[in-house]
Amino acid sequence: MSIVLEIKNLTKKFGSFTAVNNLSLTIEKGNVFGILGPNGSGKTTTLGMVLDVLNPSEGSYSWYGDSQGTNNRKKIGSILEHPIFYPELSGYKNLEITSLIKGVDKSRIEEVLTRVDLIQRKYSPFSSYSLGMKQRLALAAALLSNPEVLVLDEPTNGLDPEGIRQMRELIISIAKEGKTIIISSHILDEIQKMCSHYAILKHGKLLKQGAIGDILSSKNQFLLDSNNNEELKSKINQHPSFSTLEDNEGKLKITFNDKVKGSDINEFMHSQGILLSELTELKTSLEDEFLEIIKK
Amino acid sequence: MKLLQIEYKKIVGNKSFKVFSIMFLVFLPLIAILFPIYWSVPIGGESFYPFMPTSYEAAWYSVSFISSWFCFFLLSFILIYHITNEYNFRTVRQNIIDGQTRTEYLKAKIFLMLSILFFATLYVFIIGFVGGLIFSTFEPKDAGMIQTFLKTFNGLETEVETQDFGVITDGMFNIVRFFIQNLGAFSLAFLVAFLAKRGILAILIFFGLFLSEKIGEIILEVNDFGFVKDYLPTNAFMDVLPYPNLMELLSGITSPDSMNWTAVVITIIYSLLFIFFSRLLFFKRDIT
């Protein structure tokens, strides 16, 4: 895998306040990389530095191994914080400016406006757009150069549920094209649905990073329910891998010592004469992991 | 060219820029040509028209001098407004996020500044040329036309000398003076805009610097350090295209003979310094 972005010991200080503290990260091609953290954890500051609007106090970063990254930066599509455009100009005119900056042919403008469903309003002034439309125009600008990398900072901020759904579907469709996406959000469910990798920041420090798949692996726990839970309790402890049992709002949360399949449990309980009305495998969510790490 | 194209796209849709540009295009000829015709000073029961040129050479100077004040303030204001607006709307940040390097961004603004200056100079050249035609004449038959023009506008009876066609180039170097003087003013406006980042604050600083330098000059004069003022920025800019001599004005405006090369060199040095410090500021600071 080739490395798209490498961050080495990046630090940003605002006076005596350290917003990002000695951060090192590596993002590989094809990753959908989620940067998580509570408000003020340094997510936007980190993205601001790698997009050259903030000067690092210490450390360095490189896009595709080029620490200057001047030409590579034009290939990156980005949304940082709120959508920003020239208010008096139309969406189309604004994208003309972006296309000139990125060195992209004007014919791409219609294409991206169609993709984000803004083609009907392309000649309306940016100031007349709703927040959802502004956010979609920002995504259109980010997609203009058909970038290999997308950097999205809180892309669903301020959107209504329908807007969030549309934006998420757009991002997922882009990710399916094999593009590298770096996305910061505090909506963990969203990150869990979209990302392949994650990093958790707090007070500007990297607390944990890894593959989402590793978090979502089984905890060897199942939630069981039947028409006779007392009998279920007495029989389940005869299972060779049984470890512990606890009540969970009228249902039974069973932990096993080894990896057990749901079908095996169902078969075992059936052999004991118990019919299960519920059999759910419990997995750790990103939210569980996040809250546990943040609490430390 | 691509950088200029970007700047052109930004300004062409900006209503305020259009309003200021139209003001400039309309008011400049009115001021540069009609002001000398209408502005008179009563002395000993007679009206003197101090800025009324009676030769082509004097017309170049009169138009350049009057236009320079107009450009100094109005066009500097447009430049400040354009740069600070980018900070106000945070579009400077978006341009960088979109992949424009800081060097490209700054270059684009310098090119825009030079383009405004170039077009302003060209416009002043045209007005100077027309003004010269109005205020002077080449053939005896035209003299009557000019006299009629002046009489129509303010009832002024003027003796107009006839001249050879070659006199058009006399005093044309005042246009070059205009260019250099405003190069200094624009580069100061450029620095102030990047320094303040807010329109009103930048304009206050710009005019504040101008006024405080004038006060400083008086203090220096009083304390026998008058020679220092020649090296101060706005004074040097003004010396490139100097004020007319008040005593000479009574006998009609005349163009200064030669270029003040010291003022020209000082103005160019200051212009380069202001651009250099703008670059330093733009690269050192975060773009928030």
How many beta-strand runs of chain B? 2
Structural shape of chain B: globular
Strand content of chain B: under 5%
Unreliable stretches of chain B: none
Radius of gyration of chain B, Cα only, in angstroms?
21 Å
Number of helices, where a helix is a run of at least 4 consecutive DSSP H or I residues of chain A: 11
Oligomer: heterodimer
Largest interface: A-B, 30 and 26 residues
Order of helices and strands of chain B: HHEEHHHHHHHHH
Given helix and strand content, the structural type of chain B is: mainly alpha
Report the structural category of chain A: alpha/beta
The CATH superfamily of the largest domain in chain A appears as P-loop containing nucleotide triphosphate hydrolases
Rg estimate of chain A, integer Å: 24 Å
DSSP strand tally of chain A: 13
CATH class of the largest domain in chain A: Alpha Beta
CATH architecture of the largest domain in chain A: 3-Layer(aba) Sandwich
Task: Explain the layout of strands and helices.
The complex is a heterodimer of chains A (296) and B (288).
Chain A: E1 3-14, E2 17-28, E3 32-36, H1 43-50, E4 58-63, H2 70-73, E5 76-79, H3 91-102, H4 107-115, H5 131-143, E6 149-153, H6 161-176, E7 180-184, H7 188-194, E8 197-202, E9 205-211, H8 212-215, E10 218-226, H9 229-236, E11 242-248, E12 251-256, H10 262-271, E13 276-283, H11 286-295
Parallel strand pairs in A: 3-7, 3-8, 5-6, 6-7
Antiparallel strand pairs in A: 1-2, 1-4, 8-9, 10-12, 10-13, 11-12
Helix pairs in contact in A: 3-4, 4-5
Chain B: H1 2-12, H2 15-38, E1 41-43, E2 46-48, H3 56-88, H4 91-97, H5 102-135, H6 140-154, H7 173-196, H8 199-222, H9 233-240, H10 246-249, H11 261-284
Antiparallel strand pairs in B: 1-2
